[in-house]
Amino acid sequence: MELKDTYKTIASPSDEVLFKDKNSKFFGYAFPVKTENDVKLQIEKLKKEHYAARHWCYAYQLGTEQLKYRANDDGEPNNSAGMPIYGQIQSFDVTNILIVVVRYFGGVKLGVSGLINAYKTAAQMALENASITEKTIDINYSIQFDYKNMSKALRLLKDNEAEILSQKLELDCLITYSIRKSKAEELFAIFKNFHGVQIKKL
């Protein structure tokens, strides 16, 4: 079985989209996020921008292998907003993403099925409007070695398409590198058997 070492996310925030139903307006937004703090900041920003709105419902998913998600109905009937938004995150198979749908109430109740449809549609429109990109799942390591082993170590990193994150090249050299998951174990094994090199996963 091939190791899955890519994931899909969005490159940048999507442009605002608008879905209307019976005078209610639903503004949809998608943001790339990496932490729960990023989520909080984006929601606070939207609450300032749309201070007169009635609801700011959202869902997010973080992580590439251990996924963490949350769906929030923000005062709408249970599971009528957050979960339909989260369902779109799942159907587009994206992660490290936050989708917020801001609702201005138009005076006419939509009922639970109407709400589910509106939040789902606004989330879908936001995702269709975003540029989805595929990234690799990378693992970081540090290696320590004597100066005399430097050219061989650097060549191994280059041959395995590892990205050097930082390097301190003195008598005693220390390099931290990042490599896509499918190649990580093989290179780890090479360095492990390389006399004079200490390697550890970060």
Question: What does it look like?
Answer:
By secondary structure, this protein is α+β, with helices and mostly antiparallel strands. The protein folds into 2 domains: 6-134, Ribosomal Protein S5, domain 2; 138-201, 2-Layer Sandwich (Alpha-Beta Plaits). It contains 5 helices and 11 strands, in the order βββαββαβαββαββαβ. The strands form 3 sheets. It has a 5-stranded antiparallel beta sheet, with helices on both faces. A hairpin with a 5-residue loop joins strand 4 and strand 5 (68-72). The longest helix has 18 residues, at 111-128. The chain is elongated and about 75 Å long.
Helices and strands in order, then pairings?
Elements: E1 6-10, E2 17-21, E3 24-32, H1 36-49, E4 55-62, E5 68-72, H2 82-91, E6 97-104, H3 111-128, E7 132-136, E8 138-146, H4 150-159, E9 163-169, E10 172-180, H5 181-192, E11 197-201
Antiparallel strand pairs: 1-7, 2-3, 3-6, 4-5, 4-6, 8-10, 8-11, 9-10
Helix pairs in contact: 2-3
**Which fold name fills CATH's third level, the topology of the largest domain?**
Ribosomal Protein S5, domain 2
The CATH class designation of the largest domain is Alpha Beta
Low-confidence segments, ≥5 residues, pLDDT <50? none
Q: What class, by secondary structure content?
A: alpha+beta
CATH architecture descriptor text of the largest domain = 2-Layer Sandwich
Main sheet overview: 5 strands, antiparallel
Distance between the termini: 26 Å
The CATH superfamily of the largest domain is Impact, N-terminal domain
Radius of gyration: 23 Å
Proportion in helices: 25-40%
Counting DSSP H or I runs of 4 or more residues, the number of helices is 5
| Average pLDDT figure | 95
As for the number of domains, it is 2
Dominant shape = elongated
Main β-sheet, spatial strand arrangement: 2-3-6-4-5
**Strand share of the residues?**
35-45%
Number of strands: 11
N-to-C SSE series? EEEHEEHEHEEHEEHE
Domain Impact N-terminal: 22-127
InterPro entries: Impact, Impact_N, Impact_N_sf, Ribosomal_Su5_D2-typ_SF
Organism: Winogradskyella haliclonae
Protein name: Impact N-terminal domain-containing protein
